[in-house]
Write a structure and sequence with these properties.
EC 5.1.3.2, alpha/beta
Length: about 375
């Protein structure tokens, strides 16, 4: 019989109300082993997302749920700016020294294009915030971190699919903030062997929770392809034509290729990484420093035009496309080699592109103008 759990581990998630954060928080709550503390400044997210996550978790409780089970569905939400150390410290002070078991650090600005226009803002928000967080974690004896990195750290990679041993040579300021933050965490783990850290290099998260109750709801015009296509189909983005940046890349149809994985599969990867930070984990070997980086992807690339076709099937919307010039910072092919994460963490990304598009469209049609505006749109009995 599994050992009975008598206390919940406190886990802090930065950017918990965001697209990836909310699905990661849901996966943590599903285990009924963690108490989630979320900090988010709502720059690109809405607090209602976590209200919905808590509702989903409560719905999934067994009829004979224990007090501990019920407690695990309550999220401790804090509005907090990671570039303000005193705000971070106030959250840690609530739990005291050793009170927070580990951190999943997701919060960051994440637009490649925008980062080329306001690079200093990106370095301040993504790198300085990470340094402040690490300093305060150390102050409060919290030395386990799962870091949300990105495939952009590889720049234009020499080998496809991309192994983790590829040199880090980001092309955009956004990607460089991820390389810098990974380097800082790696250096810290080499300097102080009490630290344990895993960087997760995401490829392209897509889809939504199958209930349609949480999903990607960016403020303003979406910067990523799939949410843009969903908002075009639902009439929220009025552009009649999708502009495709270049069709002369060395790929099967000339358009950029990306490795898409379902956001629920990505969320499961965070849970596996967090569980690999325990003191009895053997993933770090005997090298001394407890730091590793893993790719999270499917290992299969899809082109821009293939994605458009998949969304056409899911939505029934007749997308019109126009090929325009290449965009600065775009890389022809970013396809993961996920072998290491599969072997060492037990990571799997089984859900296919059709499922991602279907779940995204389910979310978008139930929330045509975004989650917060329709916060009472979905009664719980409408959930699948």
């Amino acid at each position: 019989m599994p050992e009975e759990i008598t206390t919940l581990k406190n886990v802090l998630v930065t950017g918990g109300a965001g697209y990836i954060g909310s699905h990661v928080v849901f996966s943590l709550l599903q285990t009924r082993r963690y108490k989630v503390i979320s900090i988010d400044n709502h720059h690109n997210s809405h607090s209602v997302a976590l209200d919905r996550v808590a509702e989903l978790a409560k719905r999934d409780l067994p009829t004979n749920a224990s007090e501990l089970d019920i407690a695990s569905t309550v999220i401790d939400q804090h509005k907090c700016d990671l570039t303000q150390p005193e705000q971070i410290r106030s959250v840690f002070e609530k739990y005291g020294k050793g009170g927070i078991w580990g951190v999943i650090h997701i919060a960051a600005y994440k637009s490649v294009g925008e980062s080329t226009e306001i690079p200093v803002t990106y370095y301040l928000n993504n790198v300085s915030a990470t340094i402040y967080l690490l300093q305060i974690m150390d102050e409060f004896d919290c030395r386990r971190i799962v870091y949300s990195s990105s495939a952009t750290v590889y720049g234009t990679p020499p080998i496809i699919p991309i192994p983790e041993t590829t040199r880090l040579q980001a092309d955009s300021p956004y990607g460089k903030t991820k390389v810098m933050s990974e380097t800082i965490i790696d250096d810290l783990c080499h300097a102080d062997q009490r630290w344990r850290a895993i960087s997760l290099r995401y490829f392209n998260p897509a889809g939504a929770h199958p209930s349609g109750y949480i999903g990607e709801d960016p403020r303003g015009r979406p910067g990523n392809l799939l949410p843009l296509l969903a908002q075009m189909a639902v009439g929220r983005v009025k552009d009649p034509v999708l502009k495709v940046f270049g069709n002369d890349y060395p790929t099967p149809d000339g358009t950029c290729v990306r490795d898409y994985l379902h956001v629920m599969d990505l969320a499961s990867g965070h849970l596996l990484a967090l569980e690999a930070l325990t003191s009895d984990s053997n993933i770090f070997g005997t090298s001394g420093a407890h730091y590793k980086a893993y790719n999270l992807g499917k290992g299969r690339g899809m082109s821009v035009l293939q994605i458009v076709e998949a969304m056409r099937k899911a939505t029934g919307f007749n997308y019109k496309t126009e090929i325009i010039g290449r965009r600065r910072g775009d890389v022809p092919d970013l396809t993961a080699d996920p072998t290491l994460a599969e072997k060492e963490l037990g990571f799997k990304a089984p859900q296919d592109l059709e499922t991602m598009c279907r779940d995204l469209w389910n979310w978008q049609t139930k929330n045509p103008t975004g989650g917060p505006i329709h916060r009472t749109l979905l009664a719980m009995h409408h959930l699948k």
